[in-house]
Design a protein that fits this description.
By secondary structure, the chain is of the alpha/beta class. It contains twelve helices and nine strands. A five-stranded parallel beta sheet has the order 5-4-3-6-7, sandwiched between helices. It has a two-stranded antiparallel ribbon with strand order 1-2. The radius of gyration is 20 Å and the shape is globular.
């Protein structure tokens, strides 16, 4: 098939748009969507220090790459990268070298923080103990805490994550199916809170498969492995369901995101942003007296 915008060979067919695109126009389309989102939400401003959460995978690689490409001529915007090493044998130790390679290539300072050093135990160790929660509960809570802490330590005022369209649609449906509507409102906070570095998500308008293709076409180094604990996640079932609907009804993921964004003002009105306080144990921001990370540490007896 030929590209619908030129006469080159197409590398992708976007079922949701009906377009066949060549490599050049696919790259342009991905970048257009990302830059449109960044402009819409004013994600980068003069004087910003943006820390990018670098896993070593395709999403974080594309996030860092396009931020650097877009703002490389602006000396008043600074970038750093932070990798959290959860201690997942055969997974994270394999992906970190890819993150380091890209950071070295782009000239971006790269910081690595680990569960072992900061919490006292690797995720593998934590999950080998008797536990009630799924692996993603421990991983997600501790990762967010360490990313926020490190970003604050290096002086970053924003934290960019590689959440793509699939990720965003999944988390919307996950919270709906859990009946946690208040958490939906938290996905778009109204204001910054002391001690909590604001998150930006430049990729949320781009499907996961197109992020992967973009990374290949741009020859970015990234790790293609999957977390061995993915099978424990309810979110994995949501992902499979969404992919099935997308295959049969192209555009479903965009519809989920659009529907959520159309009702966010109503959600914020019903669930106004709750002021955060410092955790009584570690000092990190949290909703209650003791943050979730400290509660989990105590629950699995790893204080």
């Amino acid at each position: 098939m030929k590209c619908d915008k030129c006469n080159r060979e197409a590398v992708i067919y976007q079922k949701y748009s009906g377009m066949h695109l060549c490599s050049l126009h696919e790259i342009a389309d991905v970048e257009r969507k990302i830059k449109r989102r960044m402009r819409k939400e004013r994600m980068a401003k003069p004087g910003d220090h943006i820390a990018v959460a670098m896993s070593g995978g395709k999403d974080s690689a594309v996030t860092l790459s396009i931020l650097i490409d877009t703002f490389t001529t602006r000396s008043n915007i600074k970038f750093s990268a932070i990798t959290v090493d959860e201690g997942i044998e055969g997974y994270r130790n394999e992906s970190i070298p890819f993150a380091k390679e890209l950071c070295d290539r782009l000239g971006v300072p790269h910081y690595v923080v680990s569960f072992k050093e900061e919490i006292g135990h690797t995720l593998d160790d934590i999950l080998s103990r008797e536990r009630k929660e799924a692996s993603c509960t421990y991983c997600g809570v501790f990762r967010r805490t360490l990313l926020n802490r490190k970003a604050r330590e290096i002086g970053a005022n924003k934290l960019a994550t590689g959440h793509n369209l699939d990720d965003e649609a999944q988390v919307v449906l996950l919270n709906v199916m859990n009946g946690d509507v208040e958490r939906l409102a938290r996905l778009r906070p109204s204001r910054a809170q002391e001690g909590l570095i604001p998150r930006i998500k430049p990729l949320i308008d781009v499907p996961e498969k197109e992020i992967a293709l973009y990374a290949f076409l741009k020859k970015l180094p990234f790790y293609m492995g999957e977390c061995p604990y993915t099978s424990e996640s309810f979110r994995g079932e949501i992902k499979d369901m969404l992919n099935d609907f997308e295959a049969r009804h192209p555009g479903t993921k965009y519809s989920v995101l659009s529907g959520f964004e159309n009702m966010i003002d109503c959600l914020k009105e019903k669930y106004p942003q709750v002021p955060l306080a410092k955790c009584e144990v570690c000092g990190e921001p949290g909703i209650q007296g003791v943050c979730q990370a400290c509660k989990l540490k105590k629950r699995v007896r790893i204080d």
